[in-house]
User: Fold these one by one.
Assistant:
Number 1:
Amino acid sequence: MTTITIGLDGANWDLIGDWLDDGDLPNLQRLIDDGVGGVSESCLPPITVPNWKCYSTGKNPGKLGVYRFDRIDTESRTHVFHDATDFESAELWDYLNDEGISAGVINKPSTYPPKELDGFVVAGGPDASETEYRSLERGFATPERVESFLREELDYRVHPSPMISPSETGEAEVEAVLDLIDLRFEAAKALMEREDPDFLHLTVFYSMALQHYFYDGEPVERAWQRIDAHLGDFLDEGHDILVMSDHGTCYVDAVFYVNVWLQQQGYLAVENNIDGALRKAGITRERALSVAKRLGMVETLSRVVPEGIQKVIPWDEGVKRDRVLSILDWDETEAVASNQGPIYLTRSRDDPGYEELRTELIEGLESLRHPETGTPLVRAVYRGEEHYTGHAADRAPDLILDQGEGVHTSDAIGPDEPVADSGVWLGGNMPDGVFLFSGPSFRSDGLTERARIVDLAPTLLHAMGAAVPDDLDGEVLDVFAPGCDPAEHPIRTREPLSGDRAGGETDDAEVEARLADLGYLE
């Protein structure tokens, strides 16, 4: 028997409820009927990074030192991008290995560069990216025999081609994602047979890209039916299975342009810039790419037009990601925000006015209402070092937003007003994800429970007879079937392993480009 985790990025029960009711996802329904689970609450912000690591470590970001794909360094006035070496904790498979239990990890975000395990690691998108030092043709998996097999026998790919993006959401892009879903499960089944791990983790990631651009539309339903068909291959083999997600997906009812609000309130200032002039003249990336695609010149133009010029061309929504930092009047800017929650202040924390500024921002943001519906744009705003716990909490962003229901928070500068009814994404991120344990070790109570994403790692460790580190935030869930070993044996605890990993060569520009293509760095 292998214990298997199947991670589905951005999954939540409301999104797929109608398809379950209509019988379109029979294998998932069978797991529900035979298992126990419900809603899993992710950490703030409810996005891919940090939450896949919150799952695998059982810890909140304050014990990991990473709070988003990137962070804004207001002192150096730059974006800093993270890779797997920046997370300051061991993961559940490290603890399994330490007790002589082998593990395989496939396609989990924030595993690049891949580390050595007693088992294997196949790094996942969107962070695994081609660089001068680590080409995706090589270096995306360990050990080398696993990478060679994937490359030579399965023609394995980390990213879809063509890449789905805000300007490219046609049938070719959809089919590329569906093909990648098939490839992920094919790799999982093949490596289970070849490597025979005691534990296997598999993430399906790019289906979330479909949910961003189509929410619950036909391409998303096709993706879920494809996933469900593959789930059937793991049934009837006696495995313990966890189906889970890093966060959920909601329909975007409103877009909150947080930097536009900061600008209107006098906390952020911009200088005259070519980006704004181009946007007013109707020259945007979406329009340029649309024309290039019709002419069959997308790849040619991407090669011959210098990257610096490409970045200057704004999106329809305005100036985003690193271009936001480049157009700021830093001497007149007190606060700047990233997508989906983090706000960074330019004042140092020992500045006499620092805490007064934070209080002003919290009160202003928490009072915001949609101009038409009157619903809150922001549920709550937290001081970073108070919301998180752990040795790295003092490195958290100055403020963390908990977005209002159905609200997507964008960092774009350019819209005339801070609130719009629609933006790039139809589907945005929300904290409520899914978890479902099914198999011989678990009760058959259906979707009756609620958990935190940090509870999943300790529960898996105990389910496999391993000790639970005493520095985790999560707890072992009461999900076990009476009479099985995990139900009958007490929870063992242990001292934590060191999570230190040596940093490697990193190309921030390549990682940024990959995230930007997907719209994660709007």
Number 2:
Amino acid sequence: MKPVLILSAKDQIEQLLKPLISAPEKLKLQQVRLTSEELTLVVVSTQSVVHCPVCGQGARRVHSTYQRTLQDLPWGPFRVQLQVRVHRFFCQNPDCLRKIFTERLPELMEPSARRTSRLRDALRAIGWALGGRAGARQCRAHAMPVCATTLLAVLRREESATVPTPRVLGVDDWSFRARQTGTLLVDLERHQPVDVLLGSDEEVFASWLGDHPGVEIISRDRGVSYLKGATKGAPNAKQVLDRWHLCKNLEEVLQKALARQIDVLRQAGQESQGENQDQPTAPASLARTRDRQRKPPRRKAPSPSPQRAWQLTMYQQVHELAASGISHREIASRLQIQRQTVRKYLRMPEFVDRRHSPFPSHLEPYRAYLQQRWEQGEVMIKRLWQEIQQQGFTGSYNSLWKFLHTWPLPAGMVSSPTSVSFVPAVRAMPTTRTPRQTMWLLLRDPEELSEADAAYQQTLFRLAPSLENCSALGQAFLQMIKKRERDAFLPWLTQAKACPVDEMRRFALGLESESDAALAALTEPWSTGQVEGQITRLKLLKRQMYGRANIDLLRLRVLHVA
């Protein structure tokens, strides 16, 4: 049971304040001064024998006294200041190098400190939790005024604990600043960060592994820098690919393959839509008879963006130089582009802009009707906007203009005198799907598809048979990862390398080059999931410090828990 000190209202102030002072047996309270904001306690040291900090011999002979002013923990709304009168002593050891030394009070303060040890610990705890500016605001609200720079300096004086070299190491990169990345290392067995490195290239990772021998397993993504760094710094360590990154790479491969066939996606959407319902026609009230040929509007063809124009020019020059027998290295040197870009352009039979919006346009349900009216000669965008507004469209005129202004004008500009009827479009079932939406459709189990999705998928396979092979390979790969089927990996590689789609074939060749790490992903339990969680915490700490997070301070805060 803890001892209890009970004081009455008639007791002296010294008896009340003495238990609240650090090291009360070595200090004596002499005076108390109180202002509207600050409480000052004047205390004096009562030690008669003090040991020399160099030789450790006790000393009794006093040289002089001096006063030290310290900030202490607040008492309610009052700041607390301690004025401590301590002594200087003569060292009585003739062989000691220190002849005169100052009295030490380690329970209260450190040498040359301006704050008590317990105030320093409180500031440090607030700094670890909140950082500089937020911590300074919190300290100011609790009668411990300190600026953000001082609070960060308190953290920087803290020496980080030595973290043992992990047996199982997880590694991933994170963004430190614009165009500057870092590397986070996590002990997957202890679930704690090990180190924070500035840079994500192979030399940084290999250097750390060389300075910390003993790593047996390295869990990583498919980045080339970490592959080379792990091979160079820890050649005997077993590398394990992350299963989530493998699935993500497969999704990216399918999206690139589908982006090259965006016209096929649009055609499949139109055909599957036509199978489920009649082709939408315009209402009779909207039919107009035109006896003369209309003049085309004064609309210039849209000019390509500077980036697209430059890419198209590079694509044409690459094919011209390759046709003349120039090597890939020489083409890259002449055009000042990467050799990977040269190989990419040579694999493309025609130039395709792979930048696509992840969401379909709100006008996709009306595409079939707009195409029909456009071919009939109705190219006035305002009139088309008014027509689809009567069918339920709630978008703006500007959105329709962006959707239609790139369409080529119909030949002859002749309108049809016949009237047509329109069936309102169903917004829930767009005619065209984005590459990302189609990718998820190819990877889903056929039994889970709705009737509309199944019809779209079958139409897509009929128009592009190679996508059926990609769909089968993708579903088999996901099942292999999910069920950890190690024996199915090599047969899958053989089938994928024979796939007619270039993206899937290159994906298989890349996995074959690091087959040992891929096979380990199907047998080992390790993954970089913990690293991703620690990176989320790292980003939170970095953003808390409002740009003041230099790498040394950020490293201290990340490793504080460890």
